[in-house]
């Protein structure tokens, strides 16, 4: 995210110090540009050595963003403070990549309004080239070898013409020696050409693969940095497609394609030069055909780029459908929907095929015309060259050389047109990649206040919280919800299915921000806290634990800040605390047992009564001295909580101890419990029938 640095004046320093904020003139205030609304602004916090500042705009003029107040540690500073700071000094970036941050600092003196000047976004073509920049030395060497190999290739027709002339014109006594020495020399030259070509291909391939590796890495990192709401809106299949298919296309465009394209370009250039050298008049006649082909290529490329983008979108949709159905195969099977799903997938694939057909028609026309023009070039060379030979303006060797050059130029033009079409495809596929890579997450990942251990008690407060999921803005989950959980207490949250119990936890983890209202931890708005730090202080035990497809030991170590430093003893201790050690030891490979995708091989949520007791016992032990929010259905769990909150109609409708709530005969909690008891009795009856 880009922002503006404001350098302090004496006035600013004095005002900040009056508010008990230690600072000096060398400190800098950070002004983050307003993006959408004032509320969003208030969430931005920057650390600046001795103090953290948070600034928010009051209004946005045509080109200016004014700051209303500056807040730090709960204090609001009046507008006068920052307006007296010396204005914009630099643009800076709060990117998580420190190198990138350092690079993006632009030292330029300007007024505040310059911070609102939109930063120039490089075009897609430039971005594609920027990807290749780190490989510049390898690519330069590759281009050097390309020049050597192309020079050899392109000198071949000239020397072969000489060989032909030697065969036809040498006196019989010199014939053998001239021919032998010419052929030996040519063999040496061709060997050098072959070696240079091999080096070129190797260097091009390696740099291309490095570019793809970097591209995939940046894309994956950019995806993982996005806020959770982004994943609600964007389907997994689509993201996987971008990561696999689109990067492959862009990669191909920059590797084999770039390599072949450069070779064609060099050879075509050299070929034309040699044609002009051998016979300028014949070359002028032949080259008339080039301008119309170039126009055709530009028009073709434009269409191809657009079709390629649509094809990639259609492919992403198909992958998305396949991924969703395959990962939910049990549901598909249970409803017997295999054929319906196949039908749906076929429709998506048909759409891709339709686009591919359009591409095929375009390609057919383009390659047909370029192929035809190649043959016409050869025919015209023979025609005009024959006439020139008849008038003795050309020898047979020269005509042969010219023919070979014309042939090479034809091949090179065909190679270059294929390069061009692949480049257009790469640019089409790249569009979506840049969109993803340039997307700035709505929440910071690792910015904000970090409390000292003694400051963290664990008191939770939800104050007037209103919230709707980003994808379903019209169905509010909470409206003016209020809930206080004292530090070190256990609060059970109950409510009918869909009342928002899990959503409460998501807000606390700051997976989403409330639309209005605040969630606080020990009085601190969690939007001011560093989300990374906040989450590292919240332990979650989910209803459906997710295991990654690696060993049990690796899964246990996953939550550690640095899993590589976790010892076997640490893992054993963690498992013992969770009462899981004996259970894990029973597996033949113990902690090295590899659990399958989503932990399917590890049957942990179908707990039997004994294991359930063990898990419950471990949880109760771990809950001691901690603030706990339990999303509870079981009476036994609810009974052990200090208080129970009942969610209904988008807010907390009842709150109190279990006994007090149960005593209210007309209360919601009582009804919920009666319903549960009734259902359990019914289940028992059904069992004994
Ligand atoms: N990521 C999401 N995007 C859109 N809607 C969602 C999302 N997650 C949950 N919901 C919807 O929000 C509502 C509240 O969901 P939530 O999971 O918080 O309820 P719950 O009380 O925990 O339900 P249960 O007891 O069934 O787990 C539900 O209607 C659910 O469908």
TrEMBL record:
The name this protein goes by in its record: ATP-binding cassette sub-family B member 10, mitochondrial-like
Ribonucleoprotein found in the keyword field: no
Any one Pfam family match given in the protein's UniProt record, by short name: ABC_tran
Membrane-spanning ranges: 137-159, 179-203, 282-300, 360-382, 402-420
Domain called ABC transporter: residue spans: 460-674
Record carries keyword Nucleotide-binding: yes
Species assigned in the record: Sinocyclocheilus rhinocerous
Residues covered by the ABC transmembrane type-1 domain: 141-425
């Amino acid at each position: 995210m880009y922002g503006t640095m404001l350098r302090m004046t004496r006035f600013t320093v004095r005002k900040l110090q009056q508010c008990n904020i230690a600072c000096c003139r060398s400190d800098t205030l950070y002004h983050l540009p307003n993006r959408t609304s004032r509320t969003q602004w208030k969430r931005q916090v920057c650390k600046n050595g001795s103090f953290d500042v948070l600034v928010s705009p009051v209004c946005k003029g045509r080109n200016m963003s004014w700051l209303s107040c500056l807040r730090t540690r709960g204090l609001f500073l009046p507008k006068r403070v920052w307006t007296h700071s010396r204005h914009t000094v630099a643009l800076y970036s709060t990117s998580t990549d420190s190198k990138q941050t350092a690079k993006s600092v632009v030292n330029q003196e300007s007024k505040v309004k310059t911070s609102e000047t939109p930063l120039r976004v490089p075009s897609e073509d430039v971005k594609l080239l920027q990807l290749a920049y780190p490989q510049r030395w390898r690519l330069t060497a590759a281009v050097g070898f390309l020049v050597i190999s192309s020079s050899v290739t392109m000198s071949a027709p000239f020397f072969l013409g000489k060989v032909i002339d030697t065969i036809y014109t040498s006196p019989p006594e010199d014939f053998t020696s001239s021919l032998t020495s010419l052929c030996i020399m040519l063999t040496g030259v061709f060997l050098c050409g072959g070696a240079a070509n091999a080096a070129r291909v190797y260097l091009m391939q390696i740099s291309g693969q490095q570019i793809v590796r970097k591209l995939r890495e940046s894309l994956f990192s950019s995806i993982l940095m996005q806020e959770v709401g982004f994943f609600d809106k964007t389907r997994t299949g689509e993201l996987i497609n971008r990561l696999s298919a689109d990067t492959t296309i862009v990669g191909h465009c920059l590797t084999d394609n770039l390599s072949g394209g450069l070779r064609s370009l060099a050879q075509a250039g050299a070929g034309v030069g040699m044609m002009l050298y051998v016979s300028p008049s014949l070359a002028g006649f032949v080259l008339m055909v080039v301008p119309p082909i170039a126009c055709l290529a530009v028009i073709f490329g434009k269409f191809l780029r657009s079709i390629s983008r649509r094809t990639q979108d259609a492919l992403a949709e198909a992958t998305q459908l396949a991924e969703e159905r395959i990962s939910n195969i049990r549901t598909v099977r249970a409803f017997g929907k295999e054929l319906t799903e196949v039908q749906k997938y076929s429709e998506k694939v048909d759409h891709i095929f339709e686009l591919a057909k359009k591409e095929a028609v375009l390609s057919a026309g383009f390659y047909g015309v370029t192929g035809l023009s190649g043959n016409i070039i050869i025919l015209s060379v023979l025609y005009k060259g024959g006439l020139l030979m008849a008038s003795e303006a050309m020898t047979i060797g020269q005509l042969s050389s010219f023919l070979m050059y014309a042939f090479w130029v034809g091949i090179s033009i065909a190679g270059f047109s294929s390069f061009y079409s692949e480049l257009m495809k790469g640019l089409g596929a790249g569009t979506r990649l840049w969109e993803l890579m340039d997307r700035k997450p709505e929440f910071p990942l690792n910015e904000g206040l970090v409390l000292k251990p003694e400051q963290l008690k664990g008191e939770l407060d939800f104050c007037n919280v209103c919230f709707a999921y980003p994808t379903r803005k019209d169905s509010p989950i909470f409206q003016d919800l209020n809930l206080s959980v004292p530090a070190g207490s256990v609060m059970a949250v109950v409510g009918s299915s869909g009342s928002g119990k899990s959503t409460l936890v998501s807000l606390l983890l700051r997976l989403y921000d409330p639309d209005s209202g605040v969630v606080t931890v020990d009085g601190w708005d969690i939007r001011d806290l560093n989300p990374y730090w906040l989450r590292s202080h919240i332990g979650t035990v989910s209803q459906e634990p997710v295991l990654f497809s690696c060993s049990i030991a690796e899964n246990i170590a996953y939550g550690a800040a640095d899993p590589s430093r976790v010892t076997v003893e640490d893992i054993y201790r963690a498992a013992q605390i969770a009462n899981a050690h004996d259970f894990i030891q029973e597996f033949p490979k113990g902690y090295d047992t590899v659990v399958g995708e989503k932990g399917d091989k590890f049957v942990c949520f179908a707990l039997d009564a004994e294991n359930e007791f063990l898990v419950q016992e471990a949880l109760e032990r771990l809950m001691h001295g901690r603030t706990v929010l339990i999303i509870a259905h079981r009476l036994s769990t609810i009974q052990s909580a200090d208080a129970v909150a009942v969610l209904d109609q988008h807010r907390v409708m009842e709150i109190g101890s279990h006994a007090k709530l149960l005593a209210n005969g007309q209360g919601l909690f009582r009804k919920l419990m009666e319903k549960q008891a009734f259902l359990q009795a019914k289940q028992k009856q059904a069992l004994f029938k």
